Amino acid sequence: MVEAPGVVLRPQQQLTEQAQRRPPDWVAYTDGSEDLGKAGWAYAVLIGGDAIGDEGASLTSEGYGPVVTSAAHPAFLGARKHTNNTAELTALAELLRALLSSSQQRAGSRGVVRTDSEYAAACMMGRVTPKTNRQLAENLRSLWQRLRAKHTVTWRHVAGHSGNKWNDYVDELAARGRQGDRGSNAAEWADNTIPTDTPDAGSDAGGGDSNTVGHGATGGGQDSEREDDSDADCGPATPMRNGYSPSQPRQPPLARHRP
């Protein structure tokens, strides 16, 4: 910040500026993967990162597994099909659930959640209400609100497949989850004998929701920042900061035919 000559910041202003420059206490990455009718999720929690490149960060915990579509499974979050979107939503929800049950982060810690899916982030913050993933999105939203009640948490977009070390890392873990591997210490995943799918669970070539934005990535290149520190009043049709609006255009009403 450039100060005008002779102007001195008051002590409280200086503390505020210092707090803004202080790196977060933890950074978390999530990703989802779907291929050939199977979907998986993954997350990684780091310390010592800057929430930008996180090159010098250290891994403290991780989790991965298949998307659960069976309501009888303890880890069920509301997904009904194996799709790209349910994978991305589940990845965020599994991360938030793990953070809420973990004692590693002290109360009031400062964290940044990073995902390459703007669709999933919009659902998490209540900016969009999906049609076919409603239960999963509502559970994710509830977990986000509970986490923000205990910690100072923001989210920051990371471009998918852009060379970010930790985005690539969770991408690989999500692929393992898609193949049926499980790597979670959560109590919900303790019993490996419970089926994760219902017999009729399948994939949807369209992504499982009309509000899809592809595989979560918004294109290659440099990471872009998408922070939101006051999402309580976000409506379901609020556009994202890069101009993308998760809401679909309304279709014209069908013409009525007289008998």
What labels describe this entry?
disordered C terminus; RNaseH_domain; Nucleotidyltransferase, domain 5; 5-stranded mixed sheet; RNA-DNA hybrid ribonuclease activity; single chain; 26% helix; 259 residues; alpha/beta
Write a brief structural summary.
It is built from 5 helices and 5 strands, in the order H-E-E-E-H-E-H-H-E-H. It has helices at residues 11-21, 84-101, 118-124, 134-150, 165-178, and strands at residues 26-35, 38-47, 58-66, 110-115, 152-157.
Verbal overview:
The protein is α/β, with parallel strands linked by helices and 259 residues long. The chain has a domain at 22-189: 2-Layer Sandwich (Nucleotidyltransferase, domain 5), CATH 3.30.420.10. It is built from five helices and five strands; from the N terminus they run H-E-E-E-H-E-H-H-E-H. The chain has helices spanning 11-21, 84-101, 118-124, 134-150, 165-178; strands spanning 26-35, 38-47, 58-66, 110-115, 152-157. It has a five-stranded mixed beta sheet, with helices on both faces. A hairpin with a 2-residue loop joins strand 1 (26-35) and strand 2. The longest helix has 18 residues, at 84-101. The chain is globular, with a radius of gyration of 20 Å. It comes from Emiliania huxleyi (strain CCMP1516). InterPro entries: RNaseH-like_sf, RNaseH_domain, RNaseH_sf. One of its GO terms (molecular function) is nucleic acid binding. This is RNase H type-1 domain-containing protein. Residues 1-23, 177-259 are annotated as: Disordered.
